[in-house]
Amino acid sequence: MKTLLASFLALVTLAWAITSSSSPAEGASLPWAVRQEALYLTGLWAFSLMSLAIVLATRPAWLEQPLGGMDRIYRVHKWSGILAISFAALHWLIEMSDGVIKSVVGREGRLPKEHEGGFLEIMRDVAEDFGEWAIYALIAMLVLTLWKRLPYRLWRYLHHAMPMLYGMLAIHAGFLAPLDYWTSAIGALLALFIAAGTVSGLRSLSGRIGRARQVEGNIEVVREQASGLTEVVCHLEDSWRGHQPGQFAFVTFDHVEGAHPFTIACADRGDRRITFQIKALGDYTQGLAARLAAGQPVKVEGPYGRFDYRRGTRKSEQVWIAGGIGVTPFLAWLESLQEAPAEAPAAHFYYCTRQRDDDPFVARLESLCAALPTIRLHVVSTDRDRPLTAEALHARHAGERQPEIWFCGPRAFAQALRSGLRGLGMGRVRFHQEAFEMR
């Protein structure tokens, strides 16, 4: 993700540098020239990243392969938005710095504003106001997004304002960009960003995101597996295209609440039935079992994701690690291998749970792994065992072929394992992680 965003910003910066060097500010003193170019550059950074964020919000399935899955796409979307708002705030601060420069060096050497008169002049005034209002709204949106206590339902409705805010920023960028930009490389990029972002925003406002992958169906079974754990089995219509083990889908049980991503916790049997294991982790999933019943309609969008052990390196030793409800993609993997055990890879599978005796998944995992002799199951129950650590993994697998880790579980657990492995000299271990977050 860091490499992608850095490369994206480098491209924008290069186009800006080429344009700036070919048309330098004549007659401007250094402080005013620096301010002007910094204003242009931060504005370009902010707008280009916001364009990227709004394009990725449309869930472009064609980008799953190059970017590594829809969870990675949403991660880039999230950080594109955060960086865009940060650069927009910096852009606004630079705009406000003219008073400071006046007090230090005076007005001499200040660049005159472009005046074209007529409609263009009016639109530039409007665009300037739009940009300022949009920045204030985006900063407020960022604060609400990072405030995890805000219910997802409210956040989702507030997030619907993003395409309109983007439209205001597009007007701001289009009319306030210097006229000579439009005959240069940066102008071509800016036009591309405006076109792609506007189309994506209109798709969002019209409710067309993911429509081609949406399938309706009915809930067949709702079963409370344990306290706070609900199993939901859905039967979908004929247009369901099937799924690969490890994929997820956006599921709508309640149109007011909207779609939520859940991993498909079963193999594809060809009967258009899919199973979700849903843990009560937030305001929506709390008490979900009481709100659902067999026969209710459901809408499923997908499948998405590339969390698939078959993408691993053949020469590597596979290590599978599931934490809590992160076991769901592994359940689908194991089920899919029951009819072809010879295709199962050699893997150590660590399932980490708080209480083995009360965990409904343990018996299921033991039954599935019993038919797959190349997969060695290790149940780590923290009420009786030491928690799984990087040191324990290093001690067990350091002498084997370079291990390749497939992880699904709490983010803090993944970060602890990653940093621990780096500290033990295993930083080059390939660490595949299902890292989906809606906000």
UniProtKB/TrEMBL annotation:
Pfam families: FAD_binding_8 (PF08022), Ferric_reduct (PF01794), NAD_binding_1 (PF00175)
Keyword Membrane: yes
Cell compartment(s), UniProt: Membrane
Keywords: 2Fe-2S, FAD, Flavoprotein, Iron, Iron-sulfur, Membrane, Metal-binding, Oxidoreductase, Signal, Transmembrane, Transmembrane helix
Annotated FAD-binding FR-type domain residues: 212-310
Principal cellular location given in the protein's record: membrane
Membrane topology listed for this record: Multi-pass membrane protein
Transmembrane segments: 37-56, 76-94, 133-150, 157-175, 181-202
Cofactor: FAD
Signal peptide boundaries: 1-25
Stored PANTHER family: 1,2-PHENYLACETYL-COA EPOXIDASE, SUBUNIT E (PTHR47354:SF8), NADH OXIDOREDUCTASE HCR (PTHR47354)
Name of the molecule in the record: Ferric reductase
Lineage, broadest ranks: Bacteria, Pseudomonadati, Pseudomonadota, Betaproteobacteria, Rhodocyclales
